[in-house]
Amino acid sequence: KGPKVDEGxxxxxxxxxxxxxxxxxxxxxxTRRYKVIALDNHHNSSSGCLDRVSELTKSELPADATxxxxxxxxxxxxxxxxxxxxxxxAVFEKYGKEGVWGVVHIAAYKAVGESTEIPLTYYANNVCAxxxxxxxxxxxxxxxxxxSSSATVYGTPPVIPIPETTxxxxxxxxxxxxxxxxxxxxxLCHADKRWRALSLRYFNPAGAHPSGMIGxxxxxxxxxxxxxLAHMAVGRVKDSTLKVFGDDYPTPDGTCVRDYLHVMDxxxxxxxxxxxxxxxxxxxKEDATAYYKAYNLGxxxxxxxxxxxxxxxxxxxxxxxxxxxxxxxxxxxxxxxDPALAERDLGFKAPADLTTMCRDLWNWQQKNPMGYGEQLVxxxxxx
Length: 383
Ligand code: WQD
What we know:
Structural class: alpha/beta
Number of helices: 12
Shape: globular
Distance between the termini: 41 Å
Oligomer: single chain
Radius of gyration: 20 Å
Largest sheet: 7 strands, parallel
Number of strands: 16
Bound molecules: UDP-4-deoxy-4-formamido-beta-L-arabinopyranose
Helix content: 25-40%
């Protein structure tokens, strides 16, 4: 499926230097079905990450790879603030009309708690930037979009596992920016049928590429559970007791349940989505009112906080302690996906199990105790 061309059409990935973005770029580069252009403002990412992606794809080229093939492992990276339309335009101008075949829009601020403290920054960066991006895409006749949405659009879902037909509600400005962006894209596709767009509602991505070359590298103390546990096990967070945010939820062990999927499986979902927007494998019915659909990208299996702690104890050998404290604002009891629609329409699969996710996360963290920051070269802080 998908365009079969030697030098794939140009696909622009916003947030390309981030955790999800770098794994998506790796998958796109590896299949060589698309030529990747990365945009990032490096607010929560480092450019070193994309050097690693190039290194990784180069290391997997056949021994007799041509100079061109080695060159194609390089990634065009543009530092770009998506809230500035002129900066987006400058990138598109570099590739001219019809130069960018499609866009994977991942760039966004994503901390639920932070979004309640600085909502304006979140609306500017997540919603206004999306509008600017869509406007510039339209100017350059680029009308294929894969949009990074989130299970957070379901608020407290009435049904578990969650189907895409569930009404959308958000409790935080972050969640509202995801619903607003989906709505904007949906309306655009209804107004202009030259647009083809998919929103991918991520559940909880986890793990890292099995090589340990790329992985999740949040700035400062991680807010999310898995990277926090990895930082504790590697000694980057001087604390061996996890604070569990409440164990009085209506769940099997009282702690929140989430649907963790391997970041490599999530990344593959983006390749399948781009392929689904290619003319020859069009997934929409010709008489559709709009060429727009939203899909859950999850495993369809719920795992509790305490089960995660246990899985990470096994993967790292680190003896995590935990202490139950009050609930965290904005948390919901259970976010488990019904992934049937993505499996049916896109051929999406998320086979990697929790043990594999924790093993790959730990492999990344052990090899990069300080993430992409200063590297310990033979135990010495190197470049
Ligand atoms: C998982 C569970 C916490 C830390 C977040 C964003 C969501 C999406 C994915 C972007 C929860 C519990 C956590 C800790 C804990 N991001 N926990 N102690 O909240 O499901 O989703 O990341 O799309 O928008 O909200 O992930 O890893 O923060 O929390 O008990 O120190 O772990 O309460 O139940 P979450 P998380």
